[in-house]
Amino acid sequence: MKNKEIPYKIYLNEQEMPKQWYNVRADMKKKPAPLLNPGTLEPMTADDLYVVFCEELAHQELDDTTAYIDIPQEIQDFYRMYRPSPLVRAYCLEEKLKTPAKIYYKFEGNNTSGSHKLNSAIAQAYYAKKQGLIGVTTETGAGQWGTALSMACAYLDLDCDVYMVKVSYEQKPFRREVMRTYGTKVTPSPSTATEVGKKILAEHPNTTGSLGCAISEAVESAVSREGYRYVLGSVLNQVLLHQSIIGLEAKVALDKYGIVPDVIIGCAGGGSNLGGLISPFMGEKLRGEKDYQFIAVEPASCPSLTRGKYVYDFCDTGMVTPLAKMYTLGSGFIPSANHAGGLRYHGMSPVVSELFHQGLLEARSVEQTSVFEAAEQFARVEGILPAPESSHAIRVAIDEALRCKETGEEKTILFGLTGTGYFDMLAYEKYNNGEMGDYIPSDEDLQKGFDGLPDIPQNR
Ligand SMILES: *Cc1c(COP(=O)(O)O)cnc(C)c1O
Known about the structure:
Helix content is 42%, strand content 16%. It has helices at residues 46-50, 55-62, 73-82, 91-97, 118-130, 144-156, 166-171, 173-181, 195-203, 211-223, 237-256, 272-286, 304-307, 350-357, 368-382, 388-407, 425-432, 443-451; strands spanning 9-10, 20-22, 68-70, 87-89, 102-107, 135-140, 159-165, 185-189, 228-230, 263-267, 293-299, 309-314, 323-328, 362-366, 412-417.
């Protein structure tokens, strides 16, 4: 039995709450590659970005030098409704695993949207409102981002148009209805509401959709209407900036008790929760103050960091977005229908990609049955029913803790528990029925995605 001088949950008081976001790009000697205008192949300027994004968000997107950016008071006030999120010491899991490791997780599922995505949704909606816009458009896959944005838009009285990947629209009616309850218009994608949607449907009439394709529709729907802008729930620099609230709070909580993590683990879809969680710690590493081991965990069925290429690619299937240099499987890559666990995006945040490329961050891929096994183990001892996405991080945290059991090391492990899985019970049902399989794309499968990469000079 361990001595429990550290509380099960560490909260922050009002004074301790972060009042600024941290921009890790400021401390990166080699910056992430700039977004490119797909027409000219020149770096996107603020003017180029204004067409798609709100002005303030465009500035944040391009700002590689300001380390700390004030969180507007209105956003701080909104954060107070559901933050700080608890930093939990997983004593029960440690006991169950009989590991000498100390495990902590930062739990972002304590809000109705059920995930960390609300941290950026409120920021993006706030800047849109401040600019006097009518509304915003976006895509959603599993539905967490759309739900978060719906909550933020309802709060600020902004219009919200969500293009929802068709397979999720049909399989996840409950998330769809949460969004509609918050006043959002939800359209299954691909749809006939946009030109790009019609084109994709003509080429692939039976497609169940993909995130990349829904992005294309949402962008078109924003740029073709007055008073609307597009917002994105992950991948972009601005989103990582907003999500730094996760890491900043975690750091204050750990510092209060003099706890220094050895290993920091996050699941990686587009890279925003991982980037946000690790940012302040990565800043210390980049400035040579401390060292940490960082691990990004992705699904074996959508392995952008572990098997992708580090090249310029489109962020969407319809090839209407700027080009981003990132680890990518190709914007045409669509994960197997058998894949249940979220994290389906073909690319990865340029910040996370560059950190990985520089060897500052490791990546691991895990198979979905092992992810659900970890989810179940976690739920049974820690009480929280985790999102499948989050469970990728749980998997590797458990693996690391079990390794400590073998070596006797008393490592301190911190992982991001990004959300709850109440809306993912179809995936849990499959797992419980023993109907879930693993799917690992072959090199030939991946080659099809790589063949669709844009044919542009890559060394810039
Ligand atoms: C969206 C989501 C993720 C993955 O997105 P990132 O941008 O990689 O953080 C992970 N967990 C949950 C619960 C999500 O909703």
